[in-house]
Amino acid sequence: MDNPTPKTNISIGRRIINVSYFLEKLYEISNHGPLDCGLTCIEKVSEKLHGLSSIFTFLCKMCNRKFVIGNDDDNCLPINTCVVAGIISIGCGHSQLQELSSAMNLPMMSQKTYQTNHKLLSQNWQQLAQQSMEQAAEEEKKMAIVDGRVTKNGTPVIDVVADGVYGKRSYKKNYSALSGAAAIIGRKTGKILYLGVRNKYCYHCDRAEKKKIAVAEHFCSKNYSGPSTGMESEIIVEGFKQSLAIHGLIYGRLISDGDSSTYSKILQARPYKDITVEKVECRNHLLRNFCNKMQALQTETKYLKSHRKLLTTSRIMSIRSCIRKAIKKNKNDPFPEEQYLFDDILQAHHHAFGNHHECKSYFCDEIGNLEKNDIPKDFELGSLWQRICIMIQSIAGQARSLLHDVYSNVVERYHSIIAKYVGGKRVNYSLKNSYQTRCVASAVSYNEENALSKLYKKMTNKSPGGKLKMWEESKYKQKILSMRYTKKKRRLVFNKKQSDKDYGQSCQKPDMPVDLLDKMKNDFIKSLDKTDEERAMIERKTILQSANGEWLEMRRSLLTASNFGRVIKRRVNTPCANLVKDILYRKNIDHVESIAHGQQNEKKRSL
Question: What one-character-per-residue DSSP string does 456-491 give?
C-alpha cells in the first residue's frame, strides 16, 4: 500500500516569488535554535493568499518555532501592483488577468484587489503625467524665448499640435463613443502639454438609477453629457483657456486636421485678450482627403464611364506628387509666396492628364510637350473634368497651410499608444475610471522613455533595476534603429459618406479670407468661359437633359431660369447659405415646376 500524502494547508498550483529574497530567508532558518535545527525539520503549515502575494507559515518539528516568509521583499513594489500596472500597459483588464493566471496555474486576483491597485496606480500615473507636462512646458517656454516669440508682456508664444481620439472605433459612420480624449502637444518638443478626458457614462450612477436606489459614495467618471463628436473641441478649447494659468504660455498657432469644429470654437472663446489663434491645416490630412474625394469620383455613376476610366489611381497619385513637389519648392524659396504655390497647384491636374504646356521644371520633365496627350477632346468639356478642376481649386485654396508644410503625426503617434493601452478599442473601458487611467498612463509612456521605471521609482523611491531596466533599454535601442531604417507603409484610403457639424468635412469652419475668396471666384468664372465650338459640343452632349448626368452636373454651376427668381428676390439681410446648398447639392430636380411639366407633356409634344 502506498504511503498517504501528508496533509498541508497550502493550496496547490504555482507561485511567483522573488528568488534571491526567498532563498535568503530559507538560509536564515536553515540553522536556528540551540538544537541547530535544519530545513529537514521544517514543515509547511499554512499559506495566506492575497492576489498573487503569498505569506507562508513554517513550523519546526524539533523546537516548535514558527517562521513566516513572504514571496517578495517588502521593500519592493508589491507584486499585485506590478501585475496590474503590467496588465494595463498591454491593454488588458481583470478578466484577461484571470484567464492568464488560470492558464499558468497561478492564484487568481479578486476584483476588489484589482480595483484597489488600479486606483493606487491611477493616482500615481496622474501625478507623473502632470509633472511630465510641466517639464515639457518649461522646455517649450525656453525655446520660444530663444526664438524671440514673446508678447509685449514677455509671455512666450508657441505652436501646438492638437487632435482627439475616441474610446471605440467609428468606422467613419458611427460616432457614439462613451469616452473620448484630446491632447495638446508642443511642436518643438513633441511632448504633451495638456490632456483631457471626457466620459458620458458611470457604471455606479447608472446601476443606482435603474434599481431606483441611492447612489453609494464613489468616484464618478461621468463628466460630459453632449454629443460624442463634441468631446474633442470641448477639451482642446479648455486647454487653450488654461494655457496661461497652468503653463504661462500662449498657444499662438494650432496645427490640426480639418475634421472638427475645434478652431471655430476657439475663435468664439477668444482664450487670449490681444492675440487671435492662427490655424494651420495638417498637410497629410489635406492630401489624404483630396485623394479620397478623387477616388470617390471613379465610382460616381453620374459621370460617363469612358471619362471615369481616364481618372486612374496613377493619375491621382501623380497629382498628389506634383502638389508635394510644389510645396517643397515654394517652402524652400528665400521668400516663399502663397500666390506662387496657389498657381503651381492649379497646374497639377493638367500635368497628370498629359497637358504640359504650363508645367514647371521641378515637377515635370516634358514641359511644352503635347504629343503624348491621348486624352479625348470632349473630356475637358465634360462635367467630370469640371469637378476635378473645382477640387484642385479647393486644395489650392489651402496654399497658406500647405506652405508651412506641417503635419500632426506627433499626436497620431500618441493615439496609437492609447489604442495599445485600451486593447485596440475592442474592450469597453468606459464603464468606470479605467479609460481615463489608461489615457493618462499613455501620456506618461509618450512623454517618458522609461515610463514604468518612473512609476516604480515614484512609488518606492528607488530604481527598479533588474529585467525592467533591461527591457526598457532594449526597447529604446529598437526605437533608434527603427528611426534610422524606416520602411514605407501602405496606406488605406476610405470614403466618408456621412457628415456632422462637429466632426468631419462638413463641420463648422470660419469663413475663408476675402482675398482668397476673390481668387477662387475669379478662377471659377474663368472656368465658365467657353468658345462657340465648346458650347456647341456641350449642347450636343447634354441633349437628353434630365436623363443625362453631365447636364445635371453642368446645371449646378449655372444660375438657371428656375432659380433666378429665388436669387433676385432674396432680401439683403436674409442668409444665403441654405439657398446655395439647395442649388448646388440637391440631387433630384424633379421638384422644379417647369421641369415636372416638361417631363409630363414631352411625349404629347413629340406626337
Answer: HHHHHSS---HHHHHHHHHHHHHHHHHHHS--PPP-
Q: Are 251 and 132 found together in one domain?
A: yes
In this structure, are 396 and 415 located in the same domain? no
Domain annotation covers residue 93: no
Q: What does the pLDDT look like over 564-583, one tens digit per residue?
A: 788 888 888 888 888 887 77
Does the pLDDT at position 264 exceed 60? yes
- Are 135 and 246 in contact by the 8 Å Cβ rule? The answer is no
Task: Return the CA Rg of the chain.
Answer: 33
Q: Into how many domains does the chain fold?
A: 4
> Can you list the alpha helix ranges (DSSP code H) found in 278-366?
283-297, 305-308, 313-331, 338-345, 348-352
Q: Three-state secondary structure along 189-232?
A: CCCEEEEEEEECCCHHHHHHHHHCCCCCCCCCCCCCCCCHHHHH
Cα 554 to Cα 333, 545, 577, distances in angstroms: 39, 10, 20
Give yes or no for a contact between 307 and 549, defined as CB atoms under 8 angstroms apart. Answer: no
Domain boundary among 55, 77, 99: 77
Q: Nearest-5° angle of CA 510, CA 515, CA 521?
A: 90
Distance (Å, rounded) from C-alpha 347 to C-alpha 343?
7
What's the pLDDT at 253? 92
CB 144 within 8 A of CB 157: yes
Decide: 304 and 319 in contact? Cβ < 8 Å.
no
Within this chain, do residues 360 and 266 fall inside the same structural domain, yes or no? no
Q: Tell whether 309 is covered by a domain.
A: yes
Task: Identify whether residues 400 and 348 lie together within a single domain.
Answer: yes
By the 8 A CB rule, do 430 and 446 touch? no
Asked whether the beta carbons of 220 and 205 are under 8 A apart, the reply is yes
Residue 514 cell numbers, joined: 476675402
Residue pLDDT, tens place only, 373-417 = 667 778 888 889 999 999 999 999 999 999 999 999 999 999 999
Task: Please tell me whether residues 323 and 363 are part of one structural domain.
Answer: yes
Domain that includes residue 293, residue range:
286-405+512-558
Residues 6+ apart with CB under 8 A from 92: 100, 423
C-alpha cell, 487:
520602411
Q: Residue 15: which residues within 8 A CB-CB, separation 6 or more?
A: 52, 54, 71, 106, 107
Amino acid code (one letter) for 327: I
Cell numbers representing residue 406 in the block: 506641417
Q: Are residues 135 and 255 in the same domain?
A: yes
Domain edge (last residue) among 41, 62, 77: 77
**462 located within any domain:** no
Residue 346 has, within 13 A of its CA and on its CB side, a CA count of 16
Coil, strand or helix at 63: coil
Structure letter (DSSP) for residue 37: B
Q: How far apart are CA 379 and CA 355, in angstroms?
A: 13
In this structure, is the dihedral angle defined by the CA atoms of residues 385, 389, 390 and 391, taken in order, positive or negative?
Answer: positive
The answer to whether residues 153 and 181 belong to one domain is yes
266 in Cβ contact with 237 (< 8 Å): yes
Cα torsion angle, 416, 419, 425, 429, sign: negative
pTM of the model: 0.77
Residues 184 and 200 in one domain: yes
State which H helix or E strand residue 129 sits in. helix 111-147
H or E stretch at 70: strand 66-70
Q: Is there a domain that residue 14 lies in?
A: no
User: What is the distance between the alpha carbons of residues 446 and 191, in angstroms, rounded to a whole number?
Assistant: 7
